[in-house]
Specification:
6-stranded mixed beta sheet, 4-stranded antiparallel beta sheet, 64% helix, binds magnesium ion, Rossmann fold, ATP-binding, transmembrane, 18 helices, binds adenosine-5'-diphosphate
Length: 579
């Protein structure tokens, strides 16, 4: 773990070493000051050599100017190192997240991922910057000032050292308690954030059910727990700092009284006592730094562990060695004995599915909601892996095809359109980011949305709000269709693309979809059966598997499940379970 952590320093080694060297000089300069004071008090002043005092003063000023420069470097460039390391980790984490399977995101809360990326990395950054420096500085300071104290007066040093050990013990145990309470605070704030995210995204639902008060109540629980955890944390923080302050004052008292006694007995002289007091107070700083370090280390490493935990999750859907790059895809798709389940193998969503779509033809999939139609579609771009059987594209098992080249050849239009925050143009360009503006317009025309877009004051540069909230369902769907037009894949999957729309919009979109599916292998799921009458083959899927297949006329003639679904709709009645 530590090794992995250190590996993140490697690209920033030069800056890191600069940081450490400066930290070292800061420690040395700090250690020099009491010695010079002692020299002034013991020798310079009694000798009456005032010129010497001026020289000492000038030397001190120069040394402190250097210290200021080193200080600046440590404060600025040291933090820069921490920030860069954090940046690299965030980059790696994000890149890794992009490779993970869809099933990972099915099972992981967005808030959890967010808190890894934001909170944990922040703590890691703190550790990355302050950790080595704190450890290094405090060790030098402790050893250095201890050596100085011993050299000035070892008896006094041994007396106060027992005191110092007690202080370190107090600091570490108290600090631990404090750190725990602050960890608890972070957990609570994560809850508040998650709650907030959920409530704000669902604010329209909350309002429509007039459940604002219920939402406030839910929120107030987390909010109160957060407040309480903070109050507790501040209590332990106050205990810690009060205790430390008191103990260090006591330390001064011990030094002054015992040292005073020694001075009286002539065991020690004034300059020694002076320097002594200064060194003793130096002790406080490394102790504070050390306790800070132990805490930073704990939370930073805990964060780093969670970070590594995610990095170690290996995607299970990956390219085989020598995966095939598709060229000139015809688009024939075959399912051979395909079985699939999401979690447990006993809970099969699809069993022994066999079907084939010839290149350029259209296959329609109908059946009740929950039959597994969407699941079946998601197997083609390998969003999920089949448990058994195989799916072939142009006769090649899709597991042998590179995932990128497989997905490049498939266009997916779904019922729930997701648009990214940004402009209309950006969202259409998502289909093929290197397309020209003319191509974007062409795609929009094909998707029957161009006229609408240019009627807007900002045209293609219209900002569509978060997830496209400023557009109607039909407009969003048409933008998503334009996106696929631009991508121009030979295979098309239309998963209830029109079921959320009103009749009139549906006709416009149906028209765009027909244009889109021309000359492409198309798998269409539609809840309005009239839209699939012209399919080359219709497959009726229920939770028992494929029940019927054939052309529209054949199935009507057969007078089975399809016919009853169709007739029910034709009479203007759409059964609930037909989706
Ligand atoms: P359809 O599209 O025919 O309505 P789906 O393919 O969406 O049906 O769902 C088929 C079954 O798989 C349902 O029982 C559903 O609960 C389950 N299911 C769908 N998606 C997931 C998922 N991501 N994880 C676990 N189970 C799922
Ligand atoms: Mg579905």
């Amino acid at each position: 773990m530590i090794k992995k952590f250190i590996s993140y320093y490697r690209p920033h080694m030069k800056l890191f070493i600069l940081d450490m060297v400066c930290a070292f000089f800061i420690a040395v300069l700090d250690l020099v000051f009491p010695m010079m004071t002692r020299e002034i008090v013991n020798n310079v002043i009694p000798s009456g050599n005032i010129r010497m005092l001026y020289i000492f003063t000038i030397v001190l000023v120069v040394l402190y100017v250097f210290r200021a420069i080193f200080n600046y470097i440590v404060d600025y460039w040291g933090h820069v190192v921490g920030t860069r390391i954090e940046h690299d980790m965030r980059r790696d984490l994000f890149a890794h997240l992009q490779t993970l399977d869809i099933s990972y995101f099915d099972n992981t809360k967005t808030g959890y991922i967010m808190s890894r990326i934001v909170n944990d990395l922040n703590e890691i950054s703190e550790l990355a910057h302050h950790g080595p420096e704190d450890l290094f500085l405090s060790i030098i300071m402790l050893i250095g000032s201890f050596a100085m104290l011993m050299s000035i007066n070892w008896k006094l040093t041994l007396i106060i050292f027992t005191f110092v050990i007690a202080m370190i013990w107090f600091a570490i145990t108290k600090r631990k308690k404090m750190a725990e309470s602050f960890r608890n605070v972070r957990k609570k704030i994560a809850n508040v954030n998650a709650q907030l995210e959920n409530s704000i995204s669902g604010i329209r639902v909350a309002k429509s059910f007039t459940n604002e008060e219920y939402e406030m109540e839910k929120f107030s629980i987390g909010n109160r727990e957060f407040k309480e955890s903070r109050e507790f944390a501040f209590k332990s923080m106050a205990e810690f700092f009060t205790g430390i302050r008191f103990l260090s004052n006591m330390l001064n008292v011990v030094v002054v009284s015992v040292g005073g006694l020694f001075l009286y007995k002539n065991v020690i002289n004034t300059g020694d006592l002076f320097a002594y007091l200064l060194y003793v107070n130096f002790f406080m700083q490394p102790i504070r730094r050390l306790t800070q370090f132990t805490q930073q280390y704990q939370s930073g490493m805990a964060g780093f562990e969670r970070f590594i935990e995610i990095l170690n999750i290996k995607p299970s859907i990956v390219d085989k060695e020598n995966a095939i790059e598709l060229k000139d895809v015809k688009g024939k798709i075959e399912f051979k004995n395909v079985s699939f389940s999401y979690n447990s193998k006993n809970n099969r969503v699809l069993s022994n599915i066999n079907l084939a779509i010839e290149a350029g033809k259209t296959l329609a999939l109908v059946g009740p909601s929950g039959a597994g139609k969407t699941t079946l579609c998601h197997l083609i771009p390998r969003f999920y892996e089949v448990d058994s059987g195989e799916i072939l594209l142009d006769g090649i098992n899709i597991k042998d095809i590179s995932i990128k080249s497989l997905r490049k050849n498939i266009g997916l239009v779904q019922q729930n359109v997701f648009l990214f925050t940004g402009t209309i143009k950006e969202n259409i360009l998502y289909g093929r980011p290197d397309a020209s503006f003319e191509e974007v317009v062409e795609a929009a025309k094909n998707a029957n949305i161009h006229d609408f877009i240019i009627s807007l004051p900002d045209g293609y540069d219209t900002y569509i709000g978060e997830k496209g909230i400023k557009l109607s369902g039909g407009q969003k769907q048409r933008i998503s269709i334009a996106r696929v037009f631009l991508k121009n894949p030979p295979i098309l999957i239309l998963d209830e693309a029109t079921s959320a729309l009103d009749n009139e919009t549906e006709i416009i979109i149906q028209n765009a979809l027909e244009r889109l599916s021309k000359d492409r292998t198309t798998l269409v799921i539609a809840h309005r059966l009239s839209t699939i009458k012209n399919a080359d083959e219709i497959v009726v899927l229920t939770d028992k598997g494929i029940q019927e297949r054939g052309k529209h006329e054949e199935l009507i003639e057969k007078n089975g499940l399809y016919a009853s679904l169709y007739n029910a709709q034709f009479k203007g009645f759409i059964p609930d379970d037909v989706n």
